[in-house]
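Project outcomes to date are best conveyed with an example. Our students and postdoctoral researchers have been running inverse folding experiments weekly, and each run begins with a structure described purely in tokens. The record below, which covers 255 residues, was selected by the lab manager from last quarter's runs and is presented without edits.
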């Protein structure tokens, strides 16, 4: 989900408070993402593929360029509109927080700061949005078993993912098991293949390096585990939706 990205690059466009009744709206092709906290809601959201039922205290994420219909007798929320290329999905994502008071407070805080527009408010709002992401992650985190059979391999992977010649067999060897068995256990525990996990780590590392403005794109590729810049560019675009140069131009230089 949206809050699971270690480095979610974003640019806040607006923060709104909506208190609506008898809503029947079609949202089409919005070029920004939206994150909302619903204080009161019975909204039904319908896309071509899915139907979602909102309730009080739901946190919801809406990706850019998603067409959907929103129908509700009551829909009261605070919503943050923002740009990002660090996360791609075509579905609405949402959850009911276990401790909704913390998140409702953060959403009220970001709306209040955005509305007052005091000196440095965009920095403050960006910090609050990061707090929101962190709280969403915290409330959804499921800890991994400490006695995991693959823990030694995972620890090695996290230390070594920037090695260009890192292999899954090399990682599996750290837990004294076959590559096939390691892939099976890793997928069961993390939900994705170890190779995809490594790619995600490398691309997130690359985003962080590009964001500093200190390195050329070829240097970033090398420092993230890629000896071949063309291959790095392909992986970067597959993960983010844009090439490294497009990311640099649109999200760093145009800042």
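After processing, the design step wrote out the following sequence:
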């Amino acid at each position: 989900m949206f809050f699971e990205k270690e480095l979610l690059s974003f640019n806040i466009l607006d923060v709104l408070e909506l208190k609506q009744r008898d809503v029947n709206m079609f949202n089409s092709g919005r070029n920004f993402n939206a994150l909302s906290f619903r204080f009161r809601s019975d909204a039904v959201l319908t896309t071509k593929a899915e139907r979602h039922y909102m309730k009080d205290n739901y946190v919801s994420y809406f990706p850019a360029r998603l067409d959907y219909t929103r129908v509700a007798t009551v829909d009261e929320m605070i919503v943050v509109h923002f740009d990002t290329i660090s996360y791609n999905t075509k579905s609405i994502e949402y959850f009911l927080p276990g401790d909704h008071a913390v998140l409702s407070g953060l959403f009220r805080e970001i709306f209040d700061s955005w509305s007052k527009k005091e000196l440095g408010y965009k920095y403050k709002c960006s910090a609050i949005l990061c707090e929101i992401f962190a709280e969403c992650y915290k409330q959804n985190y499921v800890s991994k078993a400490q006695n995991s059979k693959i823990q030694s391999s995972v620890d090695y992977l996290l230390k070594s993912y920037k090695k260009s010649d890192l292999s899954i067999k090399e990682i599996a060897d750290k837990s004294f098991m076959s590559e096939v068995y390691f892939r099976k256990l890793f997928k069961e525990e993390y939900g994705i293949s170890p190779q995809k996990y490594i790619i995600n780590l490398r691309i997130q590392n690359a985003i962080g390096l590009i964001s500093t403005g200190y390195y050329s794109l070829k240097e970033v590729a090398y420092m993230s585990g890629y000896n071949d810049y063309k291959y790095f560019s392909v992986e970067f675009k597959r993960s983010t939706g844009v090439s490294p140069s497009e990311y640099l131009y649109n999200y760093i230089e145009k800042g």
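The first helix runs from residue 100 to 116. The chain has a mean pLDDT of 88. The training component of this project remains on track.
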